[in-house]
Design goal:
The chain is α/β, with parallel strands linked by helices and about 475 residues long. It has two domains: about 350 residues, ANL, N-terminal domain (Rossmann fold); about 80 residues, 2-Layer Sandwich (GMP Synthetase, Chain A, domain 3). The two termini are about 40 Å apart. The strands form six sheets. Strands 2-1-12-11-13-14-15-16 form an eight-stranded mixed sheet, sandwiched between helices. The chain is globular. It is about 25% helix and about 30% strand. A hairpin with a 3-residue loop joins strand 15 and strand 16.
């Protein structure tokens, strides 16, 4: 795997960083029903006495729950040659291809993953720490491989190192052991992994989420653990605010990433958490963390472009492109597409528009709806709909039409206690007509009790 020219190499393992941050007895990782002190890892292992078997190997890490995966990551970095972080929702049919592409020589996981070992050694991982001396002397710069789906749903394997994953965490920014981090994301996805690494390298603790836990219950548990820093996608946060449980926690820092943060969700979060700093960040598995914005406004200042330093950004053909030491190294696989353009930039596929000295995200290039030959970004229409005070969440999609090929339709979750539904739909249509070109105005508005969110935390966009 070629090394990106801007990547700073630091031959320091995650365990060494955790240890260096200190205060292990006061720090912990928790999930529903289980909590593990980091001090326990100083005296034992979650992998029994089998960690030496994985030295220099490519390892598929596949567990149902997050806590065993988090503990195994701390142990494997600097020992394994490669760690493939496998989210639990990856289709079983894709796992043999993932194992082959990553040249996995062992599978670390729970019993639900054992069937996918396919002849490789299987090592059980769990939240329990077995006492005993463990040699974690590293020396290997481990590749961290994250899975991201392409348009076909087949996972792409994106290669990072600890250095590229932590490029947005400069020395001297540790918040100390009193910081308790959490996120709606699964920590085996880029957004969740960022929060996990910030907690571990910054000297804090972390509350892990569960896919089986409703948003309201998660917020109650986060509040009980006194979470100070929490992140999620805008869709995560919309569902959380609808649960009515926001008052159960009092974070100091609230962050959004993964989707466009429109002005409505920024305003809702600032109202829900008036004592917190509310920010939205741009990051992707391939491009890494580019920037965050904390001025309370959607989009980002045009001055962010053209700056040289750790992150360089440019816009080409309306698409945001990023070059930094936080970029992934590339894709795994003999037939994998190149990640970088000729100038070393990653094309994010996110389209932006400049208005009054500020860039606004309008949508993904691959998510455009074609209405009679005219381009429509669903996210642009959703931002208008979400501004209505009677709306909590919306989904815009295409519906086939014999004349134009497609028309725009919208599904809307109304605020609790909202009055006449027909009046609300008319108000939404009036707002769209006032703010959007005619071909972008939804042909129909349908009120729904909920909108599906994918395992990634993003709205599940299945065109009808």
């Amino acid at each position: 795997m070629p090394q990106h020219p801007l990547l700073r190499h630091e031959m320091r393992s995650l365990w060494q960083a955790v240890n260096a941050a200190g205060r292990l007895p006061e720090r912990w990782l928790a999930e529903p029903g289980a909590r593990v002190s980091l001090a326990a890892l100083a005296r034992g292992s979650t992998l029994g006495q089998r960690l030496p078997e994985l030295r220099g190997r490519s390892v598929l890490l596949a567990t149902r729950d997050q806590l065993p995966a988090a503990l195994a990551l701390i142990e494997l970095d600097g020992i394994a040659r490669r760690i493939v972080l496998c989210p639990p929702d990856v289709a079983a049919a894709h796992l043999p291809g993932v194992i082959e592409t990553a040249a996995a020589e062992a599978v670390v996981g729970d019993r639900t993953a054992a069937e996918h070992a396919a002849g490789q050694p299987f090592i059980a991982a769990g939240p329990a720490v077995s006492p005993g001396a463990v040699n974690r002397a590293g020396g290997i710069e481990t590749e961290w491989v994250l899975l991201t789906s392409g348009t076909t749903g087949v996972p792409k394997l994106v290669v990072h190192t600890l250095a590229s994953l932590t490029g947005a965490m400069p020395p001297g920014t540790a918040l100390g052991h009193e910081a308790v981090w959490s996120t709606f994301y699964d920590m085996r996805r880029y957004g969740g992994l960022q929060i996990f690494l910030r907690a571990m390298m910054g000297g804090g603790s972390m509350v892990l989420s569960s896919a089986l836990e409703p948003p309201g219950e998660f917020l109650v548990r986060a509040g009980a653990h006194r979470v100070t820093h929490i992140s999620g996608t805008p869709s995560h946060w919309r569902r959380a605010l609808m649960s009515g449980a926001a008052a159960k926690m009092a974070p100091r820092y609230v962050r959004m990433s993964g989707e466009i943060a429109d002005q409505a969700i920024i305003d809702h979060l600032r109202a829900a958490f008036p004592a917190a700093d509310v920010a939205h960040a741009f990051a992707s598995t391939e491009a890494g963390v580019a920037f965050d914005v904390g001025d309370g406004l959607a989009g980002f200042p045009a001055s962010y472009l053209g700056q040289r330093g750790d992150v360089e950004m440019t816009v080409a053909g309306s698409s945001l492109r990023i070059r930094s030491n936080r970029n992934a190294l590339g894709y795994l696989g003999a037939d994998a597409a190149p990640l970088f353009d000729g100038d070393g930039f990653v094309d994010t596929g996110d389209e932006v528009e400049l208005r009054d000295g500020r860039y606004y995200f309008v949508g993904r290039r691959g998510g455009v709806i074609n209405i009679g030959g005219q381009k429509v970004h669903p996210e642009e229409i959703e931002a208008v709909i979400n501004r209505h005070p009677g709306v909590r969440m919306s989904l815009v999609k295409a519906r086939k039409n014999p004349i134009t090929g497609a028309i725009v339709v919208a599904e809307v979750v109304a605020a609790a206690g909202r009055g006449d539904p027909e009046a609300l739909k008319q108000e939404i249509l009036d707002a769209c007509r006032a703010a959007l070109a005619r071909h972008k105005v939804p042909a129909t508005i349908r009120l729904v009790p909920a909108i599906d969110v994918a395992a990634s935390g993003k709205i599940a966009r299945n065109d009808g």
